[in-house]
Amino acid sequence: AGIGKCVATDLARRNARTILACRSRERGQAAVEEIRAATGNPAVTLRLLDTGSLASVRAFASAVLREEPRLDVLVNNAGVTGLPFAITSEGLEQTFATNYLGPFLLTNLLLG
Question: 26: closest CA among 62, 1, 52?
């Protein structure tokens, strides 16, 4: 939704292979179908990613590096606000993990 969906739509309009990295399979797949319909680009795909989970970030990065021939652009757009204080299963504060640590780790893992 929001800025991320707009950026993905613009990239798809430019005929880019576009990967939407989403926490929710249902919302993500709905966005994929909407972007494909709006742009005519069938190369829009969904991969599940929760940036609040470093294990999820590692699995996502590993799959992208293994399955994609190249990566030209990374848009880190995930973020949360206003959540009650919570600790992840990895012992990290949820908002900090989701907004900072996850995207930082993802970027560094994808740099190769």
Answer: 1
Model pLDDT for residues 61-102, shown as the tens digit of each residue: 999 999 999 999 999 998 899 999 999 999 999 999 999 999
Task: Give CA 47 to chain center in angstroms.
Answer: 7
- 47: number of Cβ within 10 Å: 15
pLDDT at 78: 82
Q: Where are the domains of the chain?
A: 1-48, 52-111
| The dihedral sign for the CA sequence 29, 78, 81, 35 | negative
Q: Which amino acid is at 22?
A: C
Which one-letter DSSP state was computed for residue 110? Answer: H
Tell me how far apart the alpha carbons of residues 31 and 111 are, in angstroms, rounded to a whole number: 26
Choose among 11, 16, 105: nearest CA to 54.
Answer: 105
Q: What is the pLDDT of residues 43-66, one digit of tens each?
A: 999 999 999 999 999 999 999 999
